[in-house]
Amino acid sequence: MIEIEIKARADHDALKNRLKQEGADYEKTVEQTDIYFNAPDRDFGETDEALRLRNEGGQVFMTYKGPKLDPLSKTRKEVDVEVADFDKMEELIRCLRYKETLRVRKMREIYHLDGALVCLDKVDGLGEFVELETLAVDEGAIAPRRDFLVGTLRHLGVMGELIRESYLEMLLAKK
User: Active site includes 36?
Assistant: First the structure.
């Protein structure tokens, strides 16, 4: 599956009011702790890939993200697998000689609006953002789905520049 994602800085208080006005469905608020790893045989920073182990309120996911496919968004192939044990999965990855790149911690409020997943993220060390996500089955659907997300973002009153970098990339750039 291809995940299409756009991101911008956003004032959460104003955005929450707008989401309520638009009838968005609130799902939940979760704390996410992500550990990003680098491969022993290649540098994911150079290949534009990511391997992430996520703990989301007790649910654990291992995710591979391929190189970005779109010049305007964070669109990429994504393979996401739920795993039972965070600590054992982390140990397994380290046994395979993958090295931790960085940990990213955030609080995420999740909403659904008109077929888009809307996430209000407060990221340690970076501040407040909004991410909108949807899925595409093939590369031909990327541009129309991305344009839908951009239109939804603008309709919500977020006019700032789109940010193509991941939170990992942004935090690494601050170091």
Answer: yes
Residue with tokens 């939170």: 167
Q: Other C-beta atoms within 10 Å of 37: how many?
A: 21
State the burial class of residue 12 (Cβ atoms within 10 Å of its Cβ: 0-12, 13-18, 19+): middle
State both tokens at 151: 């239109």
Residue 127's domain spans which residues? Answer: 2-174
d(CA 141, CA 127): 31
Please choose, from the candidates 138, 140, 137, 131, the residue with its C-alpha nearest in 3D space to the C-alpha of residue 164: 131
In this predicted model, what pLDDT tens digit does every residue of 98-156 receive, in sequence order? 999 999 999 999 999 999 999 999 999 999 999 999 998 888 999 999 999 999 999 99
CATH number, position 163: 2.40.320.10
> What is the count of structural domains for the chain?
1
Q: How many residues does the chain have?
A: 175
Among 36, 98, 111, 167, the active-site one is 36
pTM: 0.92
8 Å CB contact between 2 and 80:
no
